[in-house]
Amino acid sequence: MGIRGELFTTKISLDNRTYFFNVKENRTGDVFLQVVESKSTEGADFDRHAIVVFEDDMQKFLQGLEGSLGFIEKNRKARVKEAAERGDQGKKKVVRKKAAEAPVKKESAPKKAPRKVTVISKKDKKPE
Known about the structure:
By secondary structure, the chain is an alpha+beta fold.
């Protein structure tokens, strides 16, 4: 067993956030998933939030996640279809704020393209 009961961990780094997916085991032998979001704040501090999903609850958690991802995908397709019907080229409408309303933004590195995540349920997975 690793440090603090860690059995497995993986890290996903995005623009200004980092996500950690930690599989851990507590003192009583219960295995759980800890999802941690870490975001840099002003200065050298980090804003950190975590959720814990125990092994017994994992299937229901995944069902909720799959349902949410399904809704997002269906909603995205509907918006693309509506935009095509209106003649939009898939571009988002940009609303500019007046200088007095716009928040002051600190300079940062150029943004990377977002990563796409696809969730495949067990029933849809092809046997190898």
